[in-house]
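FAQ

Q: What does a record look like?
A: Structure on top, sequence underneath. For example:
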């Protein structure tokens, strides 16, 4: 076994269900087994995480997949290349609207995705101000919102003035009527719904393909300088992913999510039972068996970036940018 170039690792994450493999690897001692001393670093927002990863304050991070092609394109104002050896989650975000807005627009639980989009677009065209939020400009959450509205009206989708909020702040923002809806990963949709502020109206899976959402990301320079340390980091997280996929007793996982203040509501097999099993199912299906990044996913992400940013880039260059994102 080759020596690790670096054993002290600063590993960043944003509080969401799909950082669980990092937490579980730490909890189960998988990092230590690989010879790594990992410090988990909670970041307040995706912008903070991106900047701290790019400038070396973090060695690796739980990262939005769309950040990688944006960095390769130089569309993130930094232009520091990021790469990934591992997918942490595929497309499992949700769109939630305030219960007040659902009532006003007569949006029901059985409305299809086109019907909900039609009601929101019609309200917008009629001059109603609807503040919708996503988590970051370069994210499947942003693209899901635009593609959702584009099912009805491409021009509205292209021009819609979305705002950006960190995932954990979505619940507070909708509770204070600062926003009317959002697209975010779990558990924040479920928490807002259980607290009575919002209603989940559709999933990103009904709008966009099943592409990588979060990945383990490092800078290209760090990957080149620390190949053995990166391989050890990946191995520990993959071990955690495999364990979580087959786990039957989730009591330790629930406690871990509560300890890290990711799940902030009471949820078990006897209270909020539906939410309990929904979250457990999401965790066990965050990634398919194949956890290596797929070029097709990153080609789609590049295409989305170009589409909504109105960037004119050849297909050959788009494919090359996608390839550069993958280790």
């Amino acid at each position: 076994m080759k020596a690790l170039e670096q054993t002290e690792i600063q590993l960043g994450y944003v509080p969401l269900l799909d950082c669980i493999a990092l937490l579980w690897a730490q909890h189960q001692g998988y990092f230590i087994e690989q010879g790594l001393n990992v410090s988990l670093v909670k970041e307040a927002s995706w912008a903070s995480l991106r900047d701290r990863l790019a400038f070396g304050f973090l060695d690796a991070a739980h990262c939005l997949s769309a950040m990688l092609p944006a960095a390769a394109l130089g569309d993130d104002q930094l232009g520091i290349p990021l790469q990934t050896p591992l997918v942490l989650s595929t497309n499992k975000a949700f769109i939630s609207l305030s219960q007040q807005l659902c009532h006003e627009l007569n949006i029901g639980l059985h409305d299809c995705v086109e019907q909900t989009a039609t009601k929101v677009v019609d309200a917008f065209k009629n001059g109603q101000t609807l503040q919708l939020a996503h988590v970051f400009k370069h994210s499947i959450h942003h693209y899901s919102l635009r593609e959702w509205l584009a099912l009805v009206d491409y021009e509205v989708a292209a021009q819609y003035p979305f705002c950006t909020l960190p995932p954990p702040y979505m619940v507070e923002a909708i509770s204070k009527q600062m926003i009317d809806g959002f697209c975010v990963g779990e558990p924040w949709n479920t928490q807002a719904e259980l607290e009575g502020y919002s209603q989940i109206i559709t999933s990103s899976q009904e709008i966009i393909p099943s592409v990588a959402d979060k990945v383990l990301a490092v800078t290209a320079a760090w990957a080149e300088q620390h190949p053995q340390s990166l391989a050890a980091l990946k191995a520990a997280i993959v071990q955690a992913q495999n364990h979580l996929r087959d786990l039957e007793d989730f009591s330790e996982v629930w406690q871990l999510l509560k300890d890290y203040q990711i799940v902030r509501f009471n949820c078990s097999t006897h209270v909020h039972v539906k939410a309990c099993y929904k979250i457990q199912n999401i965790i066990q299906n965050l990634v398919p068996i194949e956890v290596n990044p797929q070029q097709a996913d990153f080609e789609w992400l590049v295409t989305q970036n170009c589409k909504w940013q109105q960037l004119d880039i050849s297909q050959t260059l788009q494919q090359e940018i996608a390839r550069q994102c993958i280790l």
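Q: Is there anything notable about this one?
A: The two ends are 20 Å apart (CA to CA).
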